[in-house]
Amino acid sequence: MKDMILAVWAYRYFIISSIKTEFKSRFVRSKLGAIWMILHPLAQVLVYALILSQIMTAKLPGVATQYAYPVYILSGIIGWTLFAEILGKSLNVFISNGNLLKKMSFPKLALPLITIGTALVNFTIFLVVMFVVFGFLGHLPIHALQWLPLLTLLTLMLAIGIGLFLGTLNVFIRDIGQFMEVVLNFWFWLTPVVYMVSIVPEKYHELFMLNPMTGIVMGFQNVLLYDKSPDLSILIYPTLFALVSMSFAMVMFYKAREEMADVL
């Protein structure tokens, strides 16, 4: 394990340059450039707001803006988007780079790290744009922003733990990637991004809290919507889930890394 970490450190400039190259290549012929990265989640927010705003706003007492529901969705969807992007790309990160793995000698763990780096760049751009939108809507949460790095780190740990484990498994069982694309769609609707947990019957609350993204998304909503610190008690389970998933992922990757090139 120590050898893998040292190898990744030795290739740190390769990882950084790959993140820059991937970021630039996506927009080399694009007129709008990086704006395309945030148009999709913003379009989602707009659709949900137009359809559900009148119903859901009444469920958000204590939010001092008439645009409470759009702000609510933005506050949760930014965390979900980071999670879904890393998990979705990690599923096929080794398969899509199979030729590269066969032709070049570099630590395979660099590929998931490139995925994380690219997702973090997208997340940062989305965060800046989101605060611009918040400004236009008259909502500027500033008192609890020190909690954002912790919530972001938890999201990264959870996404890469699940993503690396399933991405490694997907090299050998290709149905995993297809299956998880369907699961992610259901997972989104089982996470309180578009609706509030309070509207779910109380007998199902414990079931919803078994979803590790529930506590994390609620943490983002506390910070960005209510401008207060997150409830740390609901972050204990996502933290433990992330640590366990990362441990399993690293063990799985360590055992399978030598066989990957042959299978690919």
Estimate percent helicity.
over 70%
Element-level helix/strand string: HHHHHHHHHHHH
Q: What's the pLDDT, averaged over the residues?
A: 84
Major beta-sheet overview: none
Number of strands: 0
Fraction of residues in β-strands:
under 5%
Tell me the number of helical segments per DSSP (H or I, 4 or more residues long): 12
Characterization of this structure:
With 264 residues, the chain is mostly helical. It has one domain (2-263). It contains twelve helices and no strands. It has helices at residues 2-10, 12-25, 35-56, 68-90, 93-96, 98-103, 110-136, 148-172, 175-189, 205-209, 212-224, 236-263. Helix 3 packs across helix 4 (68-90), helix 4 (68-90) packs across helix 11 and helix 8 runs parallel beside helix 12 (236-263). It is globular. The mean pLDDT is 84.
Question: Which helices and strands appear, and what pairs or packs with what?
Answer:
Blueprint: H1 2-10, H2 12-25, H3 35-56, H4 68-90, H5 93-96, H6 98-103, H7 110-136, H8 148-172, H9 175-189, H10 205-209, H11 212-224, H12 236-263
Describe the structure using short key phrases:
12 helices, mainly alpha, globular, 0% strand, 264 residues
Short note summarizing the structure:
The chain is an all-alpha fold.
